[in-house]
Amino acid sequence: MTWMIYGASGYTGRLVADLAIDRGERPVLAGRDPAKVAAVATPRGLPHRTFDLADPDAVDAGLRGIDVVAHCAGPFSATSAAMVDGCLRAGAHYLDITGEIDVFESVFARHEEARSAGSVLLPGAGFDVVPTDCLAAMVAAELPTATHLDLAFQASGGISGGTLKSALEGAAVGGRARIDGEVRVVPLAWRRREVPFPSGPRRVTSLPWGDVSTAYRSTGIGNITTFAHLPGLDRVGHRSSRLSQALMRTHVVQRLGKAAIGAVVRGPGHAARSRSWVEVYAEATDDSGRSVSAALIGPDTYDLTADSVLRAVNALQSAPPTPGAHTPSTAFGADFVRRLHGVRIIEPARR
Fold this sequence. Notes:
Blueprint: E1 3-6, H1 11-22, E2 28-31, H2 34-44, E3 48-50, H3 56-62, E4 68-71, H4 76-90, E5 93-96, H5 101-108, H6 111-117, E6 120-122, H7 130-142, E7 148-155, H8 161-173, E8 175-179, E9 182-186, E10 192-197, E11 200-206, H9 211-219, E12 223-228, H10 238-248, H11 251-264, H12 270-274, E13 277-285, E14 291-299, H13 301-318, E15 324-325, H14 328-332, E16 344-350
Parallel strand pairs: 1-2, 1-4, 2-3, 4-5, 5-6, 6-15, 7-12
Antiparallel strand pairs: 7-13, 8-9, 10-11, 11-12, 13-14, 14-16
Helix pairs in contact: 1-13, 4-5, 5-9, 7-9, 8-10, 8-11
InterPro entries: NAD(P)-bd_dom_sf (IPR036291), Sacchrp_dh_NADP-bd (IPR005097)
Domain Saccharopine dehydrogenase NADP binding: 4-121
Protein name: NAD(P)H-binding protein
């Protein structure tokens, strides 16, 4: 089977391409800019194509003969729908590395279309949201009566320009949480709590994360809050978050911010990634006060993403799930995260 990395000239796209080569695979590299795609593909000896997602005919030609697309060109709010359209027309499987709640919701809304086309749609096949989604499914299985789910992470290491651009868009929307089964807008930093990460307890603050969408579909739990331990985030108050959100919504701030990110941010190098790590925590509770928690320790989030994308591509080629829109755990099971290099699970514990 033939698979493609679209957005191969971006930071994460190049990581996926290099890891694919290390594992003896030869994906087709693709993107919008011929010079940038060729600069990545030619020295690696990989086939390449260029097409603009704004041109449906060009997309159809670009996807001809492709069985699986690993879509790595963000922000996904601007690129996902067109690539999903193309994959459904081609009958190809689609996966991406988004963490954007609205993108998850829009992809999941196309479940029946994907079933009819015989395609699997798998948004969030990287750090956003494989570790959190799989842990959520693990604790939910241990506590079927759960009504609330908290998910938290902390990570060291750097960040890529694409991730920062997506975060800039997300900041304009404000906080998001799943409340009584619905995705609702809440203030940024609306909840704070202490989390017993494997390395020790940390104060975490709520922020919008993809699991507000995905974990609901993976677990059926109606109340979901996502948290992170990030320097400075715990000092954000509701008043300052409202002012920041209003500022972030302006066209000028979005345009200038993305331009600055594109000019100066390149993403962490190999040495920085080799020193980096991530910890994830999940806790499900029910109305009787019972709870189940689990945690994991993993490598750098970008290395984890590249590994996860490759393993997801392989699974879609060899043993794809039932066509339709999936989360990582509904596609491959909660134990999918155990397959990833360098991941160690702290098994679920009851209280």
